[in-house]
Amino acid sequence: ITQFTIREIHELGYETLKHPPYSPDLSPTDYQGCCKDYQFFKHFDNFLREKIFRDKGDAVNTLVEFIHSRTPDFYCNGIGTLGKRWRKCIESNGNYFDEINSL
User: Fold this and answer.
1) Half-sphere exposure of 77 toward its Cβ, with a 13 Å CA cutoff?
2) pLDDT tier, 11 (very low <50, low <70, confident <90, very high otherwise)
């Protein structure tokens, strides 16, 4: 956010919050803790290898094909832990921690 924007926000009586540091524990797609099989972009990257897109439609169709190629468990395992992971991040007050072993 630019200084101008911050001043305008403050003049309107609003407060700006600090942007939290990136954490794979907060990301629904990058988490590698207890569910090592759920690394969405790693699997998607492997799926895209040697694929060629002639147009936007090819890219969209390939994404849909990838999504359908995964079992429901693939998504449930990663997404199912989001609440616990987010809660752990909140409870740590933004401090780093090793792994979420209690999931």
Assistant:
1) 16
2) very high
Scored b (16 or more CB within 10 A) or e, 73-90 reads: ebeebbeebeeebeebbe
Q: CA-CA-CA-CA torsion for 82, 87, 92, 94, nearest 10 degrees? A: 60
Q: Which two tokens stand for residue 84?
A: 């616990």
Alpha-carbon distance 22 to 37, whole Å?
Answer: 21
Q: Which two tokens stand for residue 28?
A: 């629904």
Selection from 39, 36, 20 nearest residue 28 by Cα: 39
CA–CA dist 89, 23 (Å, integer): 9
pTM of the model: 0.53
| pLDDT number for residue 48 | 95
Q: Which of 85, 73, 83 is nearest to 33 (CA)?
A: 85
Stretch 15-39: mean pLDDT? 61
